[in-house]
Amino acid sequence: MASTAIGELNFPARVLLGPGPSLVHPRVLRALGMPVIGHLDPSFLTILNETQALLREVFHTNNRFTLALSGTGSAGMEAVLVNLIEPGDAVVVGVNGLFGTRLATIVERCGGKALPVEAPWGQPIDLQVLQEVISRSGPVKAVAVVHAETSTGVRQDLEPIGRLCREAGALFVVDAVTSLAGMPLDVDAWLIDACYSGTQKCLSCPPGLSPVTVSERALAAIRRRHTACRSWYLDFSLIADYWEDQKRLYHHTAPVSMIYALRESLRLVLEEGLPARFARHELHSRALLAGLAVLGITPLPAPDVRLPMLNCVLVPREIDEGGVRAELLDRFGIEIGGGLGTLKGLVWRIGLMGESATAGNVLALLTALGAILSRRRWARHPEQAAAAAAAVYAEAGRENGITP
Fold first, then answer.
1. Measured between alpha carbons, how far is 220 from 341 in angstroms, rounded to an integer?
2. Dihedral angle at the C-alpha atoms of 183, 96, 211, 29, nearest 10 degrees?
3. CATH fold of 26-270, please?
4. Which segments constitute the Aminotransferase class V domain (predicted)?
5. Is 349 annotated in some ligand binding site?
């Protein structure tokens, strides 16, 4: 058989403004290129300790069990549930998008009984309905919700749910894949028992790790299991023995280079400061939405529940949503996301996450969109879109001294 000549990697530059991954800082890319050492090397174990400390700061937690799982955010989701849920356990799940649906599916695969509390895609879970379902469902092992629903751009208020779970004696599980380091998240203050995220969103690290933190309350529930965890690879009791400073027992070969990258991305997050980072995401989202409004494109969620880092916007019916996305990528090198599930073909999901959240990217996207929509006669005065965003930046500079 003749061998196929495969050359060096060569691909066009992209501006990543979709639902993930986000752009990566040069310091993180340099960290990825550092020499690989053994995952049990004392120098690497020090790096693990440092990464844990940084994760605790970003999660706002003192949880001893705080680490980075080998796998993407979906691995974090599955790991939390497969460790906490046993056959027959009742779990109330907030379902208002694709990832709430996925939570319910995994609960059922664990042998648990998923009790969905549904809301229309584009709206948050109603707290009163959630409370009613918990009250009438008898003993509930856990309540699981998505903080930032990536499929709809909706933010879920967590603090009252944490109090509700504690009163009901249920564990509180939170999906923070898109929200971590992009909007306020306080694991300890909000009484969250298990929280997982992903590296490729607002942390602006390549995909491949899932930061996870688990409370002592949840760990106690895991220790009381009557059956073994159904996953060997994701078994927290085994993984903890590797990450715990006094044990360091081999479980699997840790992704050394990805840990380097995560450590550096967390350093960047904390150098900027979480409040400043949150304000930056809010500012660029406001500017983007102001520009899109000029083009006749409006957000799906209501203002008080919108995500700043993932803007889910309705595409007017006359616009070829898939064709515009393809042209954005082919002509301008800009990636945005389409809709999922019931929103397929109806929305764009525009990510302004971490390193992707800059004025330059917002203005470039609005200029490119304006050019495409104008050429196809779907928009008039497209140049006014970028001008509307620039006005938001100017006002922010005058009022708050925020630098775009």
1. 37
2. -70
3. Aspartate Aminotransferase; domain 2 (3.40.640)
4. 39-340
5. yes
CATH 3.40.640.10-classified regions of the chain = 26-270
Using CA atoms, how far residue 243 sits from 1, 43, 67, 287, 362, in Å, is 46, 14, 7, 42, 40
How far apart are alpha carbons 250 and 257 in whole angstroms?
Answer: 18
**273-400 is classed in which CATH architecture?**
Alpha-Beta Complex (3.90)
Question: pTM of the prediction?
Answer: 0.96
Runs of H (alpha helix) within 295-358 = 321-332
CA 145/CA 191 separation, integer angstroms: 13
3-state secondary structure of 358: coil
* Token output for 88: 């027959």
The dihedral of CA 257, 261, 263, 264: what is its sign?
Answer: positive
Domain with CATH 3.90.1150.10 in the chain: 273-400
List all residues 6 or more positions away from 79 whose beta carbon is below 8 Å from its beta carbon. 69, 71, 196, 210, 212, 231, 234, 236
CB atoms within 10 A of CB 128: 7
| pLDDT, tens digit (0-9, with 9 covering 90-100), for 290-328 | 999 999 999 999 999 999 999 999 999 999 999 999 999
Paired tokens of 142: 């856990």
**pLDDT single digits (tens) 75-134:** 999 999 999 999 999 999 999 999 999 999 999 999 999 999 999 999 999 999 999 999
Angle subtended by helix axes 274-294 and 359-375, to nearest 10: 20
Distance CA 314, CA 350 (A): 11
Dihedral sign for Cα 28, 34, 40, 45, please: negative
Task: Give the tokens for residue 189.
Answer: 């203050």
How many CB atoms are closer than 10 A to CB 239?
22
Both tokens of 105, joined, read 């599916």
Q: Which helix (H) or strand (E) holds 54?
A: helix 42-59
In 3D, which of 145, 93, 152 has the Cα closest to residue 120?
Answer: 152
Paired tokens of 391:
């006005």
CA angle 149, 279, 147 (to 5 degrees): 20
